[in-house]
């Protein structure tokens, strides 16, 4: 794919950890969680919680609201240490902070949803925004829409997306790449007009802007867990092609992002590449397929090329 389609002048002074702004996000809870039968939190109690929250607490709450779900390990990697084994004191500090936020109902663990089972302990808990956290965000204009109990497939995919975001931030901290911005669902979704003026959507899992000196690369990212039929993959690829042909993204940003498709193994990569070969030749250049563990390296290598 020609470089001018995937790179543009970077915008200066990007706020990397924005506070919650007005809008609406979705989050999922277990039907037997505290959301379903939550204790009443008075305004005075909420005031006391708000007064005790640190700046890092607010950033963490905003991150969980954006991600919808995150494990303890992901949150510790994002806000305390990328290597808990090398920095056990930081990891323990993160665990204490998560316990405190859970006790305050700023975060709520999904019941019975620990990764790795009971022996995994608190290090494997999965967190969503808690009842107090939702009220605190509402005070800042961000209203969360509660959904039903999440299924296993939804949980696995959401956590995989969160993991990719954590990996991108960690790479930025290490200096492997310059992460200007990352958008999660639904902020990364794009509406456009299709044939006969129909309003259509392209729904990537993530959107990322990676700095390259004075330039930047733009990426739509698909996190594939090999759960979708190849026909669904082809339809999704064609939707990206329709979005590209609409020109809406180029009109707003000047360029069209490349699409990085992250897959779990080589077999799935081969399946997806076979699907993409069914597209017109030029359209195939919009897409690049990589293994899940190679996503960050791909974006970093493209930025350096």
Structure report:
It is a single chain. This protein has two domains: 3-13 and 177-304; 29-149, Arc Repressor Mutant, subunit A, CATH 1.10.10. The chain is 43% helix and 21% strand. It has helices at 3-6, 43-52, 55-67, 72-79, 88-103, 131-139, 152-174, 230-246, 248-253, 266-276, 281-284, 295-304, and strands at 7-9, 23-27, 70-71, 107-109, 126-129, 142-146, 178-184, 190-193, 199-202, 206-212, 215-223, 258-263, 287-291. A hairpin with a 5-residue loop joins strand 8 and strand 9. Helix 4 packs across helix 5. The protein is globular. The model is unreliable at 1-5, 9-24, 26-38 and 116-121 (pLDDT under 50).
- Number of separate structural domains: 2
Oligomer: single chain
| Total DSSP E strands | 13
In DSSP terms (H or I, runs of 4 or more residues), the helix count works out at 12
């Amino acid at each position: 794919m020609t470089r001018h389609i995937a790179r543009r002048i970077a915008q200066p002074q990007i706020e990397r950890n924005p506070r919650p702004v007005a809008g609406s996000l979705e989050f999922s809870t277990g039907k037997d969680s505290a959301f379903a039968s939550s204790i009443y939190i008075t305004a005075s109690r909420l005031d006391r919680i708000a007064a005790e929250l640190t700046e890092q607490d607010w950033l963490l709450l905003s991150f969980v609201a954006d991600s919808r779900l995150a494990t303890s390990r992901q949150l510790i990697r994002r806000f305390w240490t990328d290597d808990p084994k090398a920095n056990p004191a930081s990891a323990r500090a993160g665990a204490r902070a998560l316990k405190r936020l859970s006790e305050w109902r700023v975060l709520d663990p999904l019941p019975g949803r620990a990764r790795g089972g009971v022996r995994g302990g608190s290090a494997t808990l999965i967190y969503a925004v808690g009842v107090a956290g939702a009220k605190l965000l509402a005070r800042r204009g961000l209203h969360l829409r509660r959904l039903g109990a999440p299924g296993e497939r939804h949980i696995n995919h959401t956590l995989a997306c969160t993991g990719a975001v954590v990996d991108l931030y960690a790479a930025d901290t290490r200096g492997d790449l310059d992460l200007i911005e990352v958008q999660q669902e639904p902020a990364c979704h794009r509406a456009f007009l299709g044939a006969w003026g129909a309003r259509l959507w392209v729904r990537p899992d993530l959107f990322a802007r990676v700095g390259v000196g004075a330039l930047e690369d733009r990426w739509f990212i698909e996190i594939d867990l090999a759960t979708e039929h190849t026909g669904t993959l082809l339809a999704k690829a064609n939707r990206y092609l329709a979005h590209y042909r609409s020109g809406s993204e180029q009109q707003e940003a000047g360029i069209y992002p490349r699409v990085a498709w992250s897959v779990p193994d080589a077999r799935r990569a081969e399946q997806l590449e076979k699907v993409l070969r069914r597209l017109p030749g030029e359209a195939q250049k919009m897409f690049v397929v990589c293994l899940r563990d190679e996503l960050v390296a791909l974006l970093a290598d493209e930025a350096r090329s």
